[in-house]
Specification:
Belongs to the gluconokinase GntK/GntV family. Keywords: ATP-binding, Kinase, Nucleotide-binding, Transferase. The chain has 7 helices and 7 strands; from the N terminus they run E-E-E-H-E-H-H-E-H-E-H-H-E-H. Helix 3 packs parallel to helix 4. It is globular, with a radius of gyration of 17 Å.
């Protein structure tokens, strides 16, 4: 699709994770300081305060920026990520598309993924970011990245990556999940994700953005907090607003 002279990537099947660095153009690691949240304790508590948003990460002149929207299922990563990419004229990928068939089968059966399951998945996403960078293409990815070590994998050797954590109250997450049809995660899976979630702490340099009533309002907040407004094209079209 061409949108305001820019391209947006649509979903297509991604080759299952393997040892090779295959390029996937789809639309789609436990550490000290971990917070025990309980079955519903996502973000009802106030996130750790930071005096100011972290500064943008340094990036080599030849490395296009990459944004990774992180959070549990139902936080709006895909909706916000796709709209953010459209606003910026960047390419978008949904991290779920990089899962192997084995991972998808486990999630469909409501079985939580292990660190071993997620390792090649994260590597595949990192490879996609690298490939887009080599092609000179800035990108946006939606990826849960529930643990700090997972986030470290995505940023290792990639100073251009900005992580944005979408903060959503747990009851709103439950409401969204119950309203979904055909999603690989049932609402019951939310508890398993919340159980392993390691909410970002200030020394990670992760941008934290509270979910707003609409997707477009949340995108505006992401643009501001993550210092992305500089990448907006002059006169860029603002898509129609929508809820989650």
């Amino acid at each position: 699709m061409v949108c305001s002279g820019r391209r947006v990537l649509h979903s297509r099947r991604v080759t299952p994770v393997g040892p090779g660095p295959g390029r996937a153009r789809a639309a789609g690691p436990c550490e000290p300081g971990r917070v025990s949240l309980g079955p519903l304790g996502n973000d009802d508590a106030t996130p750790p305060a930071t005096p100011q948003p972290p500064e943008p990460p340094p990036r080599p002149p030849d490395a296009p920026p990459a944004v990774v929207l992180i959070g549990v299922s139902g936080s709006g990563k895909t909706t916000v990520g796709a709209l953010l990419a459209r606003r910026l004229g960047w390419i978008f990928a949904d991290g779920d598309r990089f899962h192997s068939p084995e991972n998808i089968a486990k999630m469909t059966a409501l079985k939580p993924l292990s660190d071993a399951d997620r390792s090649p998945w994260l590597a595949q996403i990192g490879t996609w970011i690298d490939d887009e960078g080599v092609a000179g293409q800035a990108c946006v990815v939606a990826c849960s990245a529930l643990k700090r070590v997972y986030r470290d994998v995505l940023r290792d050797g990639r100073p251009q990556v900005r992580l944005v954590y979408l903060v959503v109250p747990s009851e709103r997450l439950r409401t969204r999940m119950l309203a979904r049809e055909g999603h690989m995660f049932a609402a019951d899976m939310l508890a398993s994700q919340l159980a392993i979630l390691e909410r970002p702490i200030p020394d990670e340099g992760v941008y934290q953005v509270k979910s707003m009533p609409t997707a477009a309002q949340t995108v505006d907040a992401v643009l501001r907090v993550a210092h992305l407004e500089q990448f907006l094209a002059p006169g860029a079209e603002q898509p129609a607003d929508s809820g989650f």
